[in-house]
Amino acid sequence: MNEFLHMGGYASYVWSSYAIALVVLLANLVAPLRARRKLLTRLAQREKRAQRMKR
Amino acid sequence: MLRFFHQLASPKHFYRISGKWIPWLGAACLAFMLAGLYQGLLVAPTDYQQGDSYRIMFVHVPAAWMSLFIYMVMAIAGGIGLVWRIKLAEIMAISSAHVGASFTFLALITGSIWGKPMWGSWWVWDARLTSELILLFLYLGVIALYNAVEDRRTAARATSILALVGVVNIPIIHYSVEWWNTLHQGPTVTKFDAPSIDFRMLIPLLLMAIAFKLFYAVVVLLRARVEVLQRERNTSWVKALVAEHE
């Protein structure tokens, strides 16, 4: 296990690459999910305002 | 078949169908990625020249391949949107830009981290690295241009033209290692004769490449769905969806 983590002396290079890859992939997933939620909330608020105007 | 594509091009159907596809694509992506990581980090042997540092390849190369692939998808989708005025093509083009930019960034940064122990430098102005950096700027230019124009359809048209012009960079990146004497190594997988790479290294590389492709599919669909909702916000089906969300 220790040998695996050590990566033949290149641990910092290999693991930082994989960590950055993980961060980039997660950011790609989170961004559209958050954008969707924000958009739906905004559209719902707009709809409510429109309903109030009608009355 | 034609009817299927015709329906798919309608934003409402696209939204419904893509919602069904995403979980399956996501599950497949995760499976390929876990298999690729296992094979790449545990099964593949240590390289006789580069030691274990070469394992960076399993994220670096798929990211670099995808940076080119996504650019071509973006330019072709943009071109289709430009010629046939298909809204969904425009949406696909702009939804690809962010993923493409992030994969280009990932390819550059992991390449830099790989370059430090192997070449002794974080960065060299070699043809491959420079042209890939230009690709990143092209992606960022597309995103910036799209955000700068208020009207979405005008913005899509402008960005499609920029994306199509930028296609000239793609063969330059691909052939840079053959046209110029670069520090970056030449291709080992796509050579016409048998690839000069150990089979146990090739397997995880291909697994990761498939995983990255599936990941792109998931993200581009997620992004395109948000863009569809935004553009179709005044239609009754989106209003019904918003009411459901409440």
Helix content of chain A: over 70%
Show unreliable segments of chain B. none
Radius of gyration of chain B: 20 Å
Number of strands of chain B: 0
Oligomerization state of this entry?
A: heterodimer
How many beta-strand runs of chain A?
0
Shape of chain A: rod-shaped
Which structural class fits the helix and strand makeup of chain A? mainly alpha
Mean pLDDT of chain A: 88
Helix content of chain B: over 70%
Through-space gap between termini of chain B:
36 Å
Short description:
The complex is a heterodimer of chains A (55) and B (246). By secondary structure, chain A is mostly helical. Chain A is built from two helices and no strands.
Describe the structure.
The complex is a heterodimer of chains A (55) and B (246). The mean pLDDT of chain A is 88. Chain A has a domain at 23-55. Chain A contains 2 helices and no strands. Chain A is an all-alpha fold and 55 residues long. Chain A has helices at 2-6, 11-54. Chain A is rod-shaped. Chain B is mainly alpha-helical and 246 residues long. Chain B has one domain (56-188, 201-245). Chain B has 9 helices and no strands. In chain B, helix 4 (87-119) packs antiparallel against helix 5, helix 4 (87-119) runs antiparallel to helix 8 (199-231) and helix 5 packs antiparallel against helix 7 (169-179). The model of chain B has no long low-confidence stretch (mean pLDDT 88). Classes of the chains: A mainly alpha (55), B mainly alpha (246). The A-B interface holds A 4, 7-10, 13-14, 16-18, 20-21, 24-25, 27-29, 31-33, 35-36, 39-41, 43-44, 47 and B 41-42, 46, 51-53, 55-56, 59-60, 63, 98-99, 102-103, 105-106, 109-110, 113-114, 116-117, 215, 218-219, 222-223, 225-226, 229-230, 233, 238-239, 241-243, 245-246.
